[in-house]
């Protein structure tokens, strides 16, 4: 799985290198400063995307959701609590986009409970984060 993620990351970096960096108006101005411009920034973004997808899913779904449910917290409340934590870890950016981050947290939690595996959530989360490199 890690090799596959690295191959996708390398392909995204190389694809993005061939396109101009002028971000269109559909990318909000407050997000444009976060998007990578140089080759080094793009390579780092791919590494950060992979680590965020893996680490956040392990922490919030793999540990948080399972620990809460294992301690008798009802599943619906555990999903809400880990989704709130997911929003808060993203700081003010997460709070400003509360509905989006909360909904995504609920969806990742539901996916984990449905398939009993973190792998699909990790892949989707990582690929979603990587897609910002192609935002322009």
Description of the molecule:
The chain has helices spanning 2-17, 29-32, 39-70, 75-89, 91-96, 98-115, 119-130. Helix 1 (2-17) runs antiparallel to helix 3 (39-70) and helix 1 packs parallel to helix 7. It is globular. The chain has one domain (2-134). The chain has 7 helices and no strands. It is mostly helical and 136 residues long.
- Count of helical regions: 7
Q: Helical content, roughly? A: over 70%
Q: Return Rg in Å.
A: 16 Å
How many domains is the backbone divided into?
1
Per DSSP E runs of 2 or more residues, the count of β-strands stands at 0
Taking the alpha carbons of the first and last residues, their distance comes to 27 Å
User: What does the largest sheet look like?
Assistant: none
The mean pLDDT is 81
Strand content: under 5%
Order of helices and strands: HHHHHHH
Shape: globular
Low-confidence stretches: none
Structural class: mainly alpha
Keyword list:
0% strand, globular, mainly alpha
């Amino acid at each position: 799985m890690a090799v596959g993620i690295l191959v996708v990351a390398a392909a995204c970096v190389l694809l993005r290198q061939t396109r101009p960096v002028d971000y269109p108006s559909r990318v909000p101005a407050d997000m444009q400063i976060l998007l990578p411009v140089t080759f080094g920034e793009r390579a780092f973004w791919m590494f950060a995307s992979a680590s965020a997808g893996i680490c956040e899913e392990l922490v919030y779904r793999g540990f948080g959701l399972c620990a809460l449910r294992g301690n008798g917290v009802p599943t619906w409340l555990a999903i809400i609590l880990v989704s709130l934590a997911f929003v808060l870890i993203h700081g003010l950016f997460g709070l400003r986009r509360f509905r989006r981050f909360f909904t995504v947290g609920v969806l990742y939690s539901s996916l984990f409970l449905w398939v009993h595996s973190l792998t699909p959530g990790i892949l989707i989360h990582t690929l979603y984060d990587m897609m910002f490199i192609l935002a322009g």
